[in-house]
Amino acid sequence: MAWDGISVDCEAECYPNNLGDGEGDGVRQREKVARETLHIATYGEEDHDMILLGVKYLPITKLILITVESERDKAVRFASKLGRTLKIGTEVYSIKPPILYNTLAIFREIILKNLGAFEDIIVNASSGDKQLGCAALTSAFINGLKTIAVDGDTPVLLPIIKLSYNEVISETKMNILKSLDRAGGSVSDLTELASLTGYGKPLLSYHVNGGEDSKGLVQLGLVEVEKYRKGRLRITITPLGHMLLASVLG
Fold first, then answer.
1. pLDDT tens digit string along 35-78?
2. CB-based burial of residue 170 (10 Å sphere; 0-12 exposed, 13-18 middle, 19+ buried)?
């Protein structure tokens, strides 16, 4: 099959190449695979060939495109054509501002919806709006998903952490973030936070500010602490903290 200068060879079934398991392994030689693989790709009309390259070299069972609202109709037509050609399922999601927060929320929705249906999930953030691509990379990192970028005419596996960010955060820290979120994203001091969480001040101080053996929410970039009147400390969720919650709560 040839499409806009990108050749994708298919037999009775399409068996694209598989990625190596190691970081930076690139792509192995073409081989038949029997993996159920979901592709999540950002879409832009001008460089949608980046998506085709991912499809050419990697196993794919279903394709989900994420795009900005202005390109939704084009993304739908592209996905429909590719789906018919390769006989795969397709879906399209359009993102409204704020791009970063809503992209992570969409990733959470996609993961929950497709949980257990696929052996592998591959994120291709090479096409489309640059802010959307950055948001997709952040979403992949937080959720511990395998991610590729197109280098020349070959997809390359990015060194994304194999453990998802939300698995690194303890249950206590996550409960603190959730309590801050319910309070509107900020509290005036530890006393207010203690009332919201039910945790004592020493424990809260440890999880917010960290200790010798553990990073706190401040060091992790999930909250900010600001001193204001009479030495009181305002504790506020950062944009990354909001994004992490979006990945957990949807």
1. 699 999 999 999 999 999 999 989 999 999 999 999 999 999 99
2. exposed
Give the CA distances from residue 139 to residues 76, 164, 175, in Å, rounded to whole numbers and listed in that order: 22, 10, 21
CATH of domain 2-157: 3.40.50.10770
Token pair for residue 208? 């917010």
Q: What is the DSSP letter of 73?
A: H
Both tokens of residue 68? 């900005």
Tokens of 71: 């390109």
**Rounded alpha-carbon distances, angstroms, from residue 121 to 158, 161, 208, 235:** 14, 14, 33, 36
167-219: per-residue pLDDT in tens?
778 999 999 999 999 999 999 999 999 999 999 999 999 999 998 888 899 99
CATH topology for the 169-249 domain: Arc Repressor Mutant, subunit A (1.10.10)
> Tokens 């018919």 map to which residue?
84
DSSP state of 230: G
DSSP string, 115-134: TTT-SEEEEE--SS-HHHHH
Q: What distances in angstroms separate CA 191 from CA 161, 169, 207, 218, one per listed residue?
A: 36, 23, 15, 18
Cα separation, 244 vs 107, in Å, equals 11
Enumerate the CATH 1.10.10.10 domain ranges in the chain, comma separated. Answer: 169-249
> In the chain, where does the domain assigned CATH 3.40.50.10770 lie?
2-157
Q: Is the pTM of this model over 0.85?
A: no
